[in-house]
Amino acid sequence: MIGKRLTEWWRDLARGDRAEVWPRAAGIGFLVLLSVLYGIASSLALWLRSLAPRRVRVPVISVGNVVAGGTGKTPLVIYLARLLAKDRDDVAIVSRGYGRNGRGTVVVSRGERPLVGWEEAGDEPYLMAVLTKGVGIVVATRRAAGVRYAVKRMRAGVILLDDAFQHVQLARDLDIVTLDARRPLGNGHLLPGGILREHPHGLRRAHLLVATRCDAEGDPASEVRRVAAAFAPGADVVETRMKPVELWSISTGEKVSLSSARREPVLVLSSIGDPADFERTVERLGFEIAGVRSFPDHYRYGPEDLRSIESLARSCGAGAIVTTEKDSVRLTAWRPAVPLLAIGIELEFVRGEEIMRESVETVLGE
Length: 366
Description:
This protein has twelve helices and twelve strands. With 366 residues, it is of the alpha/beta class. Strands 3-4-2-5-1-6-7-8-12-11-9-10 form a twelve-stranded mixed beta sheet, sandwiched between helices. The mean pLDDT is 92.
């Protein structure tokens, strides 16, 4: 419980959601001091790795970010993979497969179905394999090795690099960066005093900025455009949001009617970068939330966790447990006493989809 509270405190602080006063300000000052040291080390490492970037003979499109945590990269990679696969059969996604078992290079999919379990693939590459068709997916400890495998062994003609903005050893033809429209740079500090992976000046490498979670009224992407003007004046900005597209039972795989699912209160369960955002999604769908349980991103649920979650569902009177699509990958074998439902989402463009398509077409020479 203490660890969970500390994690939540740091997450809110790092994203700029918490105003702090003494005495906790002393701890914040220490974290910011560590951020300075991290910034020096990370800047030097990025500079050294960028001295001689490797090129491959096919177009490379990278999707990444400058912060730690969820900014909507995976839905964007899936959107791009589907877009490319409409007209060609040589698309491959290359990822590190964060949180997976083992190392080396593993083929997750050759375009039809997952060939390995999520433990070996990583939850996000496995989910990509489920949600895309005709797209090869490779996870590799060293992305360059994964790209070489995809090009030579899978005959890939275009590469999508997942979460690779800081992987500057590999040259790319289109660098796309996702930024949360509500707080693009968190509190403005590098890790561990904030959530920045590198200094915002690194955004000058980006060709296109994708503002995600543009759900608010008015001008939701104004902060992203301000960041673009300051750090990436040459980059276009497009606006997107996450659109819930279906509700389904994890145990049966069948779609569930939203109206029937809303008849009883639910327990909201997630282990993603921004659990509060998922809670808001559940609320917007009209569910009555009886309880909430969140875990760190990519969390591996153990038997004790599942018993605790089920106990919480009973005690708060939840008629169902609602979770994320990514969590569903790690919960396929669980059969709680109440229905276990997942919400599927897709990326929806609010403004600028034509810019995205034109950028991709330019890279492909079309």
